[in-house]
């Protein structure tokens, strides 16, 4: 995968002060783009929804895949419980991962593979198994 690192904090720092779980820590974006409406695009949408819905209830680390051999979509989500609210950690995790794909699209411009880490959660998706 050809990667373009979009944003990285200062060397030796994660780029945030720890107070905002939505703070961008880093983004890695594939230089290739997803074709809108393609089978991969559709499978990825399903896969990302499953990650958002299940990660908080799977010990804050969940991976899944959808699609057949010609257009598989693989994704893994995780949440940092230390960065999330102690009052509603599961809800905050779900919210973080539900909103993260929108951030990925704006940061990585519909990259065919991407990994974005916020202070509170992280998401990676690819066309191949990576776990």
Automatic annotation (TrEMBL):
<keyword id="KW-0465">Mannose-binding</keyword>
<dbReference type="GO" id="GO:0050832">
    <property type="term" value="P:defense response to fungus"/>
</dbReference>
<dbReference type="InterPro" id="IPR038408">
    <property type="entry name" value="GNK2_sf"/>
</dbReference>
<keyword id="KW-0044">Antibiotic</keyword>
<keyword id="KW-0611">Plant defense</keyword>
<dbReference type="GO" id="GO:0005537">
    <property type="term" value="F:D-mannose binding"/>
</dbReference>
<keyword id="KW-0929">Antimicrobial</keyword>
<keyword id="KW-0430">Lectin</keyword>
<dbReference type="GO" id="GO:0031640">
    <property type="term" value="P:killing of cells of another organism"/>
</dbReference>
<keyword id="KW-1015">Disulfide bond</keyword>
<protein>
    <recommendedName>
        <fullName>Gnk2-homologous domain-containing protein</fullName>
    </recommendedName>
</protein>
<dbReference type="InterPro" id="IPR002902">
    <property type="entry name" value="GNK2"/>
</dbReference>
<dbReference type="GO" id="GO:0042742">
    <property type="term" value="P:defense response to bacterium"/>
</dbReference>
<keyword id="KW-0295">Fungicide</keyword>
<dbReference type="Pfam" id="PF01657">
    <property type="entry name" value="Stress-antifung"/>
</dbReference>
<feature type="domain" description="Gnk2-homologous">
    <location>
        <begin position="22"/>
        <end position="130"/>
    </location>
</feature>
<dbReference type="InterPro" id="IPR051378">
    <property type="entry name" value="Cell2Cell_Antifungal"/>
</dbReference>
